[in-house]
Specification:
Elements: E1 2-8, E2 12-18, E3 29-32, H1 43-46, H2 51-59, H3 65-83, H4 91-104
Parallel strand pairs: 1-3
Antiparallel strand pairs: 1-2
Helix pairs in contact: 3-4
Length: 110
């Protein structure tokens, strides 16, 4: 029996059982994730956006560099205790660079 998990843009997860098996064995869960589109990005959607998508949002001024940095810093602070992935935090240097990047976009620049 295969267990299927369908995840809809990080909002809800539905589990269903089937009679078939997959190559990893009968109890291995599989995930079905629909393709993402730029339909009304919220901050949670940005967590899994590509660098190209985030660059476009910054260029189109839908989000600022400082705002995006703060979002990812909050995620890192929340998840790093379990992951232990960040050893050295350089928050002030990152904020300086984000402010400089925001300032580099003059009025009407893309």
């Amino acid at each position: 029996m295969t267990v299927h998990y369908t995840v809809n843009a990080g909002k809800d997860c539905k589990r269903s059982s089937g009679a078939s098996s997959n190559r990893l064995g009968d109890s291995a869960p599989t995930a079905t994730v629909p393709p993402r589109r730029n339909a009304g990005k919220g901050m949670d959607d940005r967590a899994f956006a590509s660098a190209t998508e985030l660059s476009d949002e910054i260029s189109d001024r839908r989000i600022g560099c400082v705002e995006l940095l703060d979002f990812y810093l909050a995620r890192a602070e929340r998840h790093n205790p379990r992951l232990n992935a960040i050893v050295v935090w350089q928050v002030e240097q990152a904020r300086e660079r984000a402010r400089a990047a925001d300032a580099a976009f003059g009025p009407g620049e893309r």
